[in-house]
Amino acid sequence: MESGIDRLIQSVKEELQISYAFSDRCCIYKVPERLRELNEKAYTPRLVSIGPIHHCNDKLKAMEDHKRMYLQEFIARTKVSVEGFIELIKEKETRLRNCYEETNWFSSENFIKMILMDAVFVIMFLLKYNCRKSTEFRGSRDSIFYPPYKWFDVRVDICLLENQLPFFILEELCGLSTILGNSPKPTLIELTHWFFSNEWGSWAVGEYWGKIDFSEVKHLVDFLTIYHRPTEQQQHEELEVLTAPSVKELHQAGVKFVLSSSKNLLDIKFDRNKGRLEFPRLQLEDGT
Fold first, then answer.
1. Residues 223, 273 within the same domain
2. Sorted alphabetically, which InterPro entries does this protein's record hold (predicted)?
C-alpha cells in the first residue's frame, strides 16, 4: 500500500515534469511592485489588453469585440485564411511563451487565439493610424478613429511594457498579408517608426532612425529603447554614487550645462576636466 511519503515523492516528480524553465528570451513581464505602487495608473492599460498579463482584466473586455472586427477586416483584406494564421502561431508557440514571464495558466488553444486577436489588432491599429487620411482603412463603425475617438487611449496602452507582443510575430503576420494591395507595402518597422514620430515627435524617433539596426527588436517598447541607446559607449571607472545631485546643486558646484546638438535623449556627456555636462533638448508639450 502506498505511503504518504511515496505519494509526496510522486507528486513532486509530476510537478517537475510540467514546470517551465526560466527562459533567456523573456522580455515582457510585470513592472516591479516598487515602481507600480508609486503610480498604478502609469503601468496599467486603460482601454485594451495586449498579451497575457492583463488579458483577464474585466475592465478591458469591451475591446474584445473591436479586436474581432479588426480580425474580420484583416482576413478580408488578405489572401491568408484563419487556418494559415493559426498554424503560423502554433509553430511559434514555445518561442512566444518564452518571451513572457508567465503563461502557464493559458491552454494552448486560448494562448494561440489571444496572440492572433491581439497581434492583428496592433497591426490594424498601426495601419489605420498611419493611413488616417485615407478613408480606405477607416470604416464608419470604427469608434477608435471616429467618435468617441478611443485612439488617444489605445496609443498609450500599446506602449506599456506589460501590454506587449513579441515583435517577431507581428512582423511575420504582417509579412503574410497583402493588406495594402499593389502599393508598396511598408514594413512593420516603418509603420512603428511613423507611429512614434507622428505621435510624439522627434524626441521619440528622429530623423536618423534609418541608420539603426532594428533586426533584434523585441517589442514596441524595445523599439524606443534601441533608438535611444547612446551613440557612443563611454567607459569610465566605477564611482560610488549615494544620491544623484539636483541641477541646482550641480550648478552651485560649478558645473556648466551645455546644449547638445544630438537628438538622442541618452547622449549625455560629462567632461570631468572642464566641468561640462552636455545633454540634448527635451521638448515638453501637452501630449508628452
1. no
2. DUF247_pln
* 216 lies in some domain: yes
Nearest to 74 by CA among 140, 128, 146: 128
Query: The domain containing residue 56 runs over which residues?
Result: 20-227
Amino acid identity, position 119: A
**What's the domain count of the chain?**
2
Residues 259 and 126 in one domain: no
| 189 domain residue, yes or no | yes
| Contacts for 123 with CB less than 8 Å, ≥ 6 apart | 74, 170, 173, 174, 177, 188, 191
CA distance 193 to 39: 28
Question: 119 and 73 in one domain?
Answer: yes
Q: How many CA atoms lie within 13 A of 233 on its CB side?
A: 1
Instruction: Please report, in tens digits, the pLDDT of each residue of the chain (288 residues total).
Output: 567 888 888 888 877 765 556 677 899 999 999 999 999 999 999 999 999 999 999 999 999 999 999 999 899 888 788 999 999 999 999 999 999 988 888 899 999 999 999 999 999 999 988 877 666 666 667 889 888 899 989 999 999 999 999 999 999 998 877 665 556 678 899 899 889 888 776 666 666 566 788 889 999 999 988 887 776 666 666 666 667 788 899 999 999 999 988 877 778 888 889 999 998 888 777 666
Answer yes or no: do 166 and 50 share one domain.
yes
Q: How far apart are the C-alpha atoms of 273 and 101, rounded to whole Å? A: 45
